[in-house]
Design a protein that fits this description.
Elements (H helix, E strand, L loop, with lengths): L2 E3 L1 H9 L4 H9 L3 E4 H14 L4 H9 L4 E3 L3 H14 L9 H9 L5 E4 L2 H9 L3 E4 L4
């Protein structure tokens, strides 16, 4: 079983946000991972809002015990199906990256997020979850 972090979790950890202690505990377990899509989402956020260079950020993320899961064509089709099934602008605004997170998860995994819509989607798909405190 692994714990898959969404972009929010990685940003919270690196930015010392309220969810950082919980994410630190998840990383300490040694089974944390992030998809390449969610890594890209976190990276662009950190680069836009922080003062680290891309090289510095790569080095920092590389020092974290965090596996990176490649996003495949099979994952892309699953994410497309999830978004078609769960996206509703008014009450379930799951992003494509949110769907990518759940698409790489297996029933043996759990996702770590503060997003209520993602938590509901994961539960409906039989994926466990760790609810992180919001910002």
């Amino acid at each position: 079983m692994g714990t898959l972090l969404d972009a929010f979790a990685l940003v919270a950890f690196l930015g010392g946000e309220p969810a950082a202690p919980e994410v630190r505990q998840l990383l300490a377990r040694g089974d944390a991972a992030i998809s390449t899509v969610n890594l890209a989402e976190a990276g662009q956020s950190l680069l836009r809002h922080g003062d680290a260079t891309s090289d510095e950020l790569r080095e920092l993320v590389g020092s974290i015990p965090l596996a990176v899961i490649p996003f495949t064509a099979a994952h892309a089709w699953r994410a497309a199906e999830l978004r078609a099934r769960y996206y509703r602008r008014t009450d379930s605004a799951v992003s494509l990256a949110d769907c990518c997170l759940v698409a790489v998860a297996t029933p043996a995994d759990r996702v770590a997020t503060a997003d209520a819509a993602v938590l509901r989607m994961a539960a409906a798909e039989g994926i466990g979850a760790v609810e992180l405190p919001g910002a």
